[in-house]
């Protein structure tokens, strides 16, 4: 079953944190897109609120998502983002069409 998620990140309120979140999240895009089972993966930064980032991702199935979470680039992101992030939340999405 296809898995689609939106992950929202709010960077801490200083330019270094915003820059570091942008760097960490941007580094996830190309390797994630190349993973087996990745249907869609992009990171967005809100133009009206540069502290806010959104990852929109869709995976073929749970096994593909598990493979993503076991990847080296995911480990780097997971071990590095917290000092720069004020808040993070995830929404599981159902594709209706």
What can you tell me about this protein's structure?
The protein is α+β, with helices and mostly antiparallel strands and 97 residues long. It has helices at 15-33, 62-69, 72-80; strands at residues 3-11, 38-45, 52-59, 85-93. It has a four-stranded antiparallel beta sheet with strand order 2-3-1-4. A hairpin with a 6-residue loop joins strand 2 and strand 3. It is globular, with a radius of gyration of 13 Å.
Summary of the model, kept short:
This protein is of the alpha+beta class.
Helix-strand blueprint:
Elements: E1 3-11, H1 15-33, E2 38-45, E3 52-59, H2 62-69, H3 72-80, E4 85-93
Antiparallel strand pairs: 1-3, 1-4, 2-3
Question: What labels would you give this structure?
Answer:
97 residues, alpha+beta, 35% strand, globular
Report the span from N to C terminus: 14 Å
Low-pLDDT residue spans: none
Q: Could you say which structural class the secondary elements and strand pairing correspond to?
A: alpha+beta
Would you tell me the overall average pLDDT?
A: 96
Number of helices: 3
Please compute the radius of gyration using only Cα atoms.
Answer: 13 Å
Shape: globular
Work out the number of β strands: 4
Biggest sheet character: 4 strands, antiparallel
Helix residue percentage: 25-40%
Residue fraction in strands = 35-45%
State the oligomer: single chain
Give the SSE order as H and E letters: EHEEHHE
Q: Strand sequence of the main sheet, in spatial order?
A: 2-3-1-4
